[in-house]
Amino acid sequence: MVSDTIAAVATAVGEGSIAVIRVSGPDSIDVVDRVFKTKRSLKDADTHTIHYGHIWDPDTNESIDEVLVSVMRAPRSFTMEDVVEISCHGGIVSMKKVLDVVLQHGARLAEPGEFTKRAFLNGRIDLTQAEAVMDLIRSKSDRAFGIARKQSEGSLSKQIQALRHVLVETMAHIEVNIDYPEHDVEELTNAFIRDKCTEAQAEIERLLKTAGQGKMLREGITTAIVGRPNVGKSSLLNALTQENRAIVTDIPGTTRDVIEEFITINGIPLKLLDTAGIRETSDVVEKIGVERSKSALSEADLILFVLNHNEPLSSEELELMEQIRHRPVIVIVNKSDLPRRLGLEQIQNTLGEHQMVLMSMKEQKGMEQLEMAISDLFFSGQLESNDLTYVTNSRHIALLKQAYQSLSDAIHGVDMMVPIDMIQIDVRNAWEQLGEITGDTAAESLLDQIFTQFCLGK
Ligand code: GDP
Ligand code: ZN
Questions:
Q1: What is the ipTM, given to two decimal places?
Q2: Is-contact 24 6, C-beta < 8 A?
Q3: DSSP β-bridge partners for residue 38
Q4: Contact between 201 and 407 (Cβ < 8 Å)
Q5: Is 360 in the pocket of ligand 1 (CB under 6 A)?
Q6: Which pTM value belongs to this model?
Q7: What is the reported pLDDT for 434?
Q8: Fewer CB within 10 Å, N- or C-terminus of the chain?
Q9: Signal peptide position in this chain (predicted)?
C-alpha cells in the first residue's frame, strides 16, 4: 500500500496561463489545508468541490497566489487516493512558490509518472491506459488526441483481453488432452489448436496494421511537394503554412534543402516536405537537393505533384508521373492565372484516377479545393475514421509481434506433430506476451521503466 503524499506541477511548464499543482495521497487534504487561506477548512470539504482562496506560507506569513482548490476524495480520483489540485494563475514564479510551500508542509515531490503509476497500482487503469496517458500528453493533433483518449478508455485492453481469452481456452483444451491422451482426442485437439492460433494471429495482424496508421497520425502524414523548379512548390508550402520559411525566388533550383513544416488540415496532421525540383543536374549543391527530394518522395505518405499551367509537360515530368502513379497523389496545376500551355490529356492518361486541383498561388485560388482533396483522400482511404483503436506504442508493437511469432511456432509444432506439451509452451508464451501489454504479467522492473518515461506531474 502506498502511504506518503506526493505533489508536482501537473500542467506543462510554459503552456497556458494557469498552472495546476496536483497533490495525491492520504495527507493531501491536510497538507494543502495548512497553506490555504479560505473561509472554511478543507478538512470538511465534500468530494468534488472547488474552493476559492489564497495560498500562503504560514512560516513567513507571506501570501503567494490567489487560487482555486479542487478536492477529490478517494476512491473517486485519478489515483484512487485523496487528491487536491491547486489551480494558480501567477505564472512560473508563483507556481514554483506554491509547489515549494506544499513540499515544505508535508508532501514530497513526485517522481516522473508517479501519479499514473499509483493509478495503475491501485487498479484504476491498466498498462495500455497508463501508456495512453503519456501519449495524450504528447499528441500533436486533435485526431491523435482522440485515439489516445479512446485507448485510455481501454479499447485496446478489451481487444487484448479477448485475444488472451481465446488462448486460455486453447490451453485448457490442451491440458485436457495431456491428462487424457487418447488418440482421437489428439487429432481433434490439433485441429482445434490450429484454428484458435490462426484466429488469434489474424486478430494480431489486424491490430498491427493499425500500428502504421497510428504512427502516421502521431507524427503527421508525411507529404512531399514535388515538381520541376519554378512551378510554385515553395509558394504552395508558404501558402499552406502561412509563413515565409522557404525562400520564394525566380531563379530555378534555389530550394536546395528539404524543409519540414507541420500543419493541420481539417484535423489531419501533415508533415510537409518542400523538395528541390526533381531533375537531372550536374550542379553539385543542386544534386544534393535532388537526391534528398528523391528520398523524401520514397518516404512520403502523400505526394503533392505540382505542374505549371503555363508550360507544356516535360519529359522529366512524364517520367515522374510514371514513377508515382500508384501512390497517393494529388495533382496540382498551378499558375492558372496564366494562359494554358499544359496538355491535360497525358496527365489524364497517367494520373487520371487521382484528384486534380487547379490553383493559382499568385491569386490565392484553389486552396479550399486542395484541402478538400486532402481530407477526401484521408477519409476514403486506409483509415476508418470511426474505428479509433490504433496501436501506437512501440512496446505494444514489439509484444504483438512476439506473440504472433509464438503462435507461428505453435502452428508449426502442430504441423510437425510435436508433442502437445511443447506446443502448450508456445501458446503460453503468446498469452504472456499479450499480458505484458495490459500489465497483467508485468514485472516490477518493467513497470518502473514505463512510468519513469512519464512527464513529472502525470
Ligand atoms: P518552386 O521552385 O517550385 O519552389 O517555385 P516558387 O514557389 O519558388 O515559385 C517560382 C516563381 O513562380 C516565383 O516567382 C513565384 O512568384 C511564381 N509563382 C508561383 N505561383 C504562381 C502562380 O500561381 N501564378 C504566377 N503567375 N506565378 C506564380
Ligand atoms: Zn522552391
A1: 0.98
A2: yes
A3: none
A4: yes
A5: yes
A6: 0.49
A7: 92
A8: N
A9: none
